[in-house]
Structure to design on (416 residues):
């Protein structure tokens, strides 16, 4: 689409603003802008101001680096959570994914990335110091690494495992194995191999 | 996703605002909000204010019903366009699609919908009066119906053809036929049948 097609400069600006977001092309952007135009004036003002307010007032939790409304997120400030267990994740979407399981009651640490030499992301580019200060000062008993099961995730797992080996704590990673609901014949051989090596006693499964 | 998953109310509000747009689910909305958070504060303010400004200042062209920055869009106010030929389209996206062909030099009329009894949209729900007043007062010579080739499009074509039959003008529709680049064996039989009935002299094609 060339710019001269737009009958309105205001419309063009609005389309360009949407189109700068990842995964939104010009056609989708136009569709979204036309949908916005069908809303009331108040609703559109609310739409626009929500993002401005978010950017102005957002905090990152001083303890876990998660997005928060104040200096301490509602997970870190919850006394009912186990503050001796840290689940290390790449980003806030992963916090939500783990929370959604309702199987974890400790606190989190959001790295804000994973080590990826291909993308030029090294250990200094992710939030490790904050994690180490927690490990050092708060008597952490277990760190659960919940990163993607990719080369980058494994590199980060290995780096942190080495770095924290001097502290008296247990380091674990989330289990790798065949997804629940998967047909065995379609599982790849590395996953299937892993799931045989790390086989689970039957009574562990049956007690869930 | 349940609401208790969000670690921040501001974040949740922003996600919900995106998710009210058509085709944007909660997961996509979260991805977009996180992308917005990576922008500068000024860029986010600009993002939000663009939509507020659009809604506050947008006009609809008094002549053709197209979206415009003023009372008259830049197509209707262009003296170089042929003001005796009107291309009737459903919405402003169709204006852009026709403009993009660079094959049309007349003016437009945006109906703002097509007659669709199934959806309860009748002739009174679309902008026909404005079109008729142009036909009556401006000595229009040709109306080109450029609607979707669906039942609703054909119904609207037929309704307007009947309505304007009392005026001394020519009414045409855009050609229906096999798309350029299509393999003949995959064309449906109705389209192919139409394209045989409305076959074009070879010299018309070769002169383009």
């Amino acid at each position: 689409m060339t710019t001269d097609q737009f009958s309105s400069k205001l419309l063009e600006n609005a389309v360009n603003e949407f189109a700068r977001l990842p995964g939104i092309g010009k056609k989708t952007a136009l569709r979204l802008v036309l949908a916005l135009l069908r809303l009331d004036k108040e609703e559109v003002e609310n739409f626009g101001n929500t993002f401005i307010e978010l950017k102005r007032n957002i905090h990152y939790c001083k303890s876990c680096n998660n997005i928060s409304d104040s200096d301490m997120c509602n997970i870190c400030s919850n006394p009912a959570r186990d503050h001796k267990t840290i689940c290390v994740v790449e980003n806030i979407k992963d916090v939500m994914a783990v929370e959604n399981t309702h199987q974890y009651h400790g606190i989190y640490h959001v790295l804000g990335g994973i080590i990826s030499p291909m993308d030029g992301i090294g250990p200094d580019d992710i939030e490790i110091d904050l994690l180490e200060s927690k490990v050092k000062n708060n008597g952490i008993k277990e760190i659960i690494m919940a990163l993607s099961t990719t080369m980058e995730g494994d590199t980060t797992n290995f780096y942190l495992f080495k770095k924290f080996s001097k502290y008296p704590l247990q380091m674990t990673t989330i289990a790798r194995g065949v997804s629940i609901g998967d047909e065995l014949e379609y599982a790849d051989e590395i996953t299937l191999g892993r799931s045989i090596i790390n086989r689970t006693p039957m009574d562990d499964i049956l007690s869930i």
